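Contributing new records

If you add data, match the layout below exactly. Sequence lines come first and carry their own label; structure lines follow with theirs. Keep one chain per record. Anything else will be rejected by the validation script.
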Amino acid sequence: MREVENEKRFWAGEDELKRLGWKIMPNGRPVDQPNFWFASEKVQNEYMSNWSPTMTDEQLAFSWVSAGGLESFKAMERAAKENPHDSRLGEWRNMQKVAAKLNAGQGGSRAVAAPNGSSASRYKYYGAYEQVVRYWRDIESAAANHHINKNVLAAVIIWESAHAREGTGRMGAEAAKAKDDLIDGYKGWGVSVGITQLEIYKARMMLIKYYYKERDWGKATLGQVTNQLLHAPRAIQLAAAWMEYLKQNVWYENKDGSRHNLTDREAAEAYCGCSGVTVDNPLGGYPLLSFKTYKDWKETGYLDRKDSTSVVNRQRDLEHLWSNGSVEEFWRCGRAACWTSR
């Protein structure tokens, strides 16, 4: 099949597409959207008519969403449930491989030790932190820059990377932002992106507060802030900044009525909006932390939230990472550059 860089249309027939294993779109280009074959012909044609070899992954994802591509995700998921070996699901299977890698070594939400005698026995929790261990120096640096205990920061990033459900990779981030815009009403700013799973609007807040000397981050576009979170070393700095910000601004009362500012471990709890720490007016000029729900939880022990189970599970998992030796092993693995020999 000819590759013509300046030609947008190359309409292959169904027999030819089937012979090629549904890996090529009718315009002769590799399928690059997981649910392409489950979209209507109208959506497919509109996407292909705007397709160009010069487009970035971000532009392609936006073009797919603009054409109506999100509407066929459920059809793709139904097909995958009925027959995961369906030849039209090639890109979907690639997505599953990425998700499986992110969760490698996880039993539920716990790190799983390698079998005795295995090649991984020296680093038995490797599966829990393999996505982030190469950034150990960045985590150490970010912890120092933002006055966060490095073990606490490492545990947060290990947990967030292993449980990432959206915004992983460039195309994943663009699809998640489009969904946020259509459904949640934050115009794409409410998406959790990258290995730290920090929401984009929180990253913007931290850039404005701690990195204002670089540029006027208040004028940064959604895409520019997203790029910061997709660059792992920068995302780690912003995660540490968010924890420092929480320590400075979130508090609750002790039993004697005195004010208690968050410890590092409590900042790790509050890192997730599921804890009850949220941001009012996140896209406005003066975003404010709202933490009454979290404050009530810490003062009374009762968390009145529908997602309280996930909050408790996350807290339990973090405690497990701190206590079972996972974080200590993480630093040992990082210093030995253990990922280079695997």
